[in-house]
Amino acid sequence: RLGRMAESLSMRAYAVGGFVRDLLLGRTNLDLDIVIEGDGVAFMKAWEREGYRVSVHERFRTGMILFPGPRKVDVATARREFYEFPVAQPTVASDSLKHDLYRRDFTVNAMAIALGERDWGTLVDYFGGRRDLRRGFLKVLHNLSFVEDPTRVFRAVRLEQRLKLKMEENTVRLLTSCVRGGLLSLLSGLRVKSEVEILFHEALPLPAIRRLREFGAWEVLFPGLAVDSRTDRVVRRLTVFFRRLHRDLPPFEDSLWLVYLASLLFGSDEAVQRSVMDRLHLTPAERHVLSLSLFSLGAAENDLGGRGERRPSEICWALTGVPLAVCLFWAAATERQRIRRRLLLFLTRWHKVRPMLTGRDILDLGYRRGPLVGKILDALLTARLDGSVETREEEIQWVLD
Ligand code: CTP
């Protein structure tokens, strides 16, 4: 439909970038990027007239269309006046598309697939992306790729690890000089933050963290940072938790990357840790998670330790108000087995426990509105956590007693 719409406007549409790469690799990628040869803005407005939600950046001639699902399609324009371009022509090749693809980062990301009625599914591959993909090479499109955009250092490492590609020799050389030559350090804190966030959302961030260490990227980005065996150990534990407990762990979503960031900073001095937080312009909420993770581990170990058995409710009350992401970090960072086990039980089971009765039920049992209701609910929670009540009837009996 995208291709047909483009043709009805005398334009052409191509799927490009990561979508094409992942399609060739047989990997699912729900982010569809398309390039319109013609006028992307007019193309998006045509969808808008059909009732779809679009958001357009007139200045860059980019934007996105939201299809039901919801599925988002990002749209970019390969500039070319529409009258120059004969839709009927069967050949796919065209200068404007080539030019658009050439601005991209790696050969494997610089392929397109035609979406027109006649040429539907034709692969456009000017720079040998398919061959590199087949051989397992990650290769820059041209020697200025990292100079044009140093965030590509992160992208390179991410793609290399995720797709199990091997960075080609010249690409390694160019990446290294981008890092050592100081270009990487010129990136703004917000751009670094956004790349680090994406990196730490990868399924297995440890190899990428290590690879960036090999290139000296962490040290350049965050002077004084000690990414050492402590980081490895904590990240490895996190991986084990996710592998073994993923069904029972809560969804950490937006805070998960902070757990990895805390792991990265774990072995460094407090001054360095604080300067990284500043450099990344963390929000107060993000800072809170990170500071608690790094600076309160010792206190948490004191609260949660103890040789004998501790009742589940004691652990839960000790962790009241602590973000779950912080508990996860502490579970991975502590060297004390017993504390790790308690934190993991909290994360996988106890933190979800609630009494079956509600405040309303307590009032119905004859109590007056006021702080006592809250206290009864807390005491009920304690009883439930420690196994003194199981059914609703037992809870009612417990309150009446
Ligand atoms: N791109 C680029 N340089 C960048 C960012 C993006 O050349 N610094 C190009 C690449 O061709 C990439 C496309 O823009 O394929 C889309 O970018 P994005 O959606 O961020 O990346 P994907 O390749 O789709 O990767 P991912 O699977 O990690 O989202």
SSE topology:
Blueprint: H1 2-8, E1 12-16, H2 18-25, E2 32-38, H3 40-49, E3 53-57, E4 62-67, E5 71-79, H4 95-102, E6 112-114, E7 123-124, H5 129-135, E8 137-138, H6 145-148, H7 152-162, E9 166-167, H8 169-180, H9 189-199, H10 205-214, H11 217-221, H12 229-245, H13 256-265, H14 270-279, H15 284-295, H16 297-304, H17 312-318, H18 324-333, H19 337-348, H20 359-364, H21 371-385, H22 392-400
Parallel strand pairs: 2-5, 8-9
Antiparallel strand pairs: 1-2, 1-6, 3-4, 4-5, 6-7
Helix pairs in contact: 7-10, 12-13, 12-18, 13-15, 13-18, 15-18, 18-19
The structure holds cytidine-5'-triphosphate.
Explain what the structure shows:
- The protein has helices at 2-8, 18-25, 40-49, 95-102, 129-135, 145-148, 152-162, 169-180, 189-199, 205-214, 217-221, 229-245, 256-265, 270-279, 284-295, 297-304, 312-318, 324-333, 337-348, 359-364, 371-385, 392-400, and strands spanning 12-16, 32-38, 53-57, 62-67, 71-79, 112-114, 123-124, 137-138, 166-167.
- The chain is of the alpha+beta class.
- Strands 3-4-5-2-1-6-7 form a seven-stranded mixed sheet.
- Strand 6 and strand 7 (123-124) form a beta hairpin.
- The model is unreliable at 81-93 (pLDDT under 50).
- The structure holds cytidine-5'-triphosphate (CTP).
- Cytidine-5'-triphosphate (CTP) is lined by residues 17-18, 31, 33, 104-105, 109, 149, 151-152, 155.
